[in-house]
Every structure is written in structure tokens, then in C-alpha cells.
Amino acid sequence: MVVPLGHVESQVSAGVVQFVGAGLLAVSSSIFAVYALRNRQLDRLESQRPFWRYLTLLGVAGTTHGLTGMLGAAVHARSLVALSHAALLFATVFLAFAMRELYYNSVLAPPPEDRDVSLARLRRIETGFVGVILVELVVVLLIDQGAVAALVKGAGSLAFATYGVVFAERLESSTRGTSVDTLRRHLVPVLVCAGLLGVADLATLFGVGHVVARSVQSVFVVMVGAFLLTASIRLQQNVHGLSTPE
């Protein structure tokens, strides 16, 4: 069987773009994780610790997704695909949880006695989100059904991103003009792009070529990496503020 030269060139080009984009994501996520962890160490407010912890985990998951993407550009292995999918979903859900923590620590949050669902119970419900990620991981590793994996990843990404965006938008009126609002505005695009990145695989189910779908994924990976870099600058400024003696 003769493979057209144009097809080979397209595959190589897509692989190079994927490698560069994944590298950017790995670097920006690792920087983000370092500054998020530093904020957690310096922030004396106990109520803010879960927020910084989730942002740190977002950085770790993003770094993992970037590294697996770099490896996946050269080697195709089911374990790499599974780890990459899980890392993306974890990154999205950790950022969504961070937005929820930020909302419940704001003045807009209803008092505990007026909540239909307590924060503690909401956190337990959110463990179901992690269950979705584990299901997707098993589907990729054991069943090797690309369509099913794409559907689970796409649905999970959209659900997690929407969950986080809802809380982020509720924060707008109470945090406008503050440093929290600046960080929120940097993180919302990360949520949106991560959600869209998760559904990019579904394009192949509707007749879109693999190379085209792969290129679209790379675009969203670059966007997530770029938005995380700008958010890292905000975190760095916050570290400087917390480190400066009053």
C-alpha cells in the first residue's frame, strides 16, 4: 500500500504542532503550579487553602497533559492516551472546584443555614466527577473504544467546564475591580478552552479528518497554555504582595 506523500507531510506537520503546543502547556502549567503552591504557603487565610490547593493540582494535571502530549506526538500508546485524557479532565475539574471554593468564600454565597446543599455535601457529590474520569481511564485502557472514550471525555469536559464557569460568573459582581476578579478573568478562558479541547475528539465522529481534528486540538492546547501563562503572572504578583512586609 502506497501512502500519499501529502498525507505523510500533513501527519508530520500535525505532529510538530502538537509537540510544540504540548511543550508550551507543560511549561506554563508547571510555572502556574509553582506560583499557586507559593501562594498557598504564604496565604494566612485558612479558608483560601482549598482554593490554592486546587490551582496547584490544576498546574500538575496540566503539566502531565502537556508531557503526555509531547510523547504522544512521537509514539502512539494506549497508556499515553489514557493518561493524557485523564490529565485533561483532572485539570478541568480542579479548576472548576477552585471556582466553587472561591464563590463559597465570597459575600455572594448564601449563609450555611440557607443553603439547599451544604458545601461539605457538595464536595462529596463532586467525587462523582472524579468517578467519571476513572471510567474514561478504564474505557481507554481496557476497552480500547475510541468513540466511547471520546464521548465520555467530551461530556465530562463540557460538564466540568460549565460547572466552573457558572460559579466564576456568579463571582463577577462581588469581586469586580479586585485582584480576585483579575485572576478570575484569566482563569475563565482556561476553563472554556479546556472544555472545548475535551470535545475536539468528537469531530472525527462527524467525518472530520484525523489530521484536522488533531490540529484543532493543538490550537486549544496552545490557547490553554497561553492563558495559564498570563494567569501565572497574576499569581506571581500576588506572591510578591504576600511576601512584602506590611
What layout of secondary structure does this protein have?
Blueprint: H1 5-42, H2 49-72, H3 78-104, H4 119-143, H5 146-170, H6 172-175, H7 179-199, H8 210-243
Helix pairs in contact: 1-2, 1-8, 2-3, 3-4, 3-5, 3-7, 4-5, 5-7, 7-8
Can you offer a commentary on this structure?
The structure is a single chain. The chain has 246 residues and is mainly α. It has a single domain (5-243), classed as Rhodopsin 7-helix transmembrane proteins (Rhopdopsin 7-helix transmembrane proteins, Up-down Bundle). It is 80% helix and 0% strand. The protein is built from 8 helices and no strands. α1 (5-42) packs parallel to α8, α4 (119-143) runs antiparallel to α5 (146-170) and α5 (146-170) runs antiparallel to α7. The longest helix is centred in the first third of the chain and has 38 residues, at 5-42. The radius of gyration is 19 Å and the shape is globular. Mean pLDDT is 82; it is low at 1-8.
Mean pLDDT: 82
Largest sheet: none
Cα distance, first to last residue? 72 Å
CATH superfamily: Rhodopsin 7-helix transmembrane proteins
The CATH topology annotation reads as Rhopdopsin 7-helix transmembrane proteins
Give the beta-strand count.
0
Count helical runs.
Answer: 8
| Count of folded domains | 1
Which CATH C-level class is it? Mainly Alpha
Structural class: mainly alpha
Provide the low-confidence segments as ranges: 1-8
CATH architecture classification name? Up-down Bundle
Rough outline: globular
H-E order: HHHHHHHH
Rg calc: 19 Å
- Range of helix content: over 70%
Quote the beta fraction: under 5%
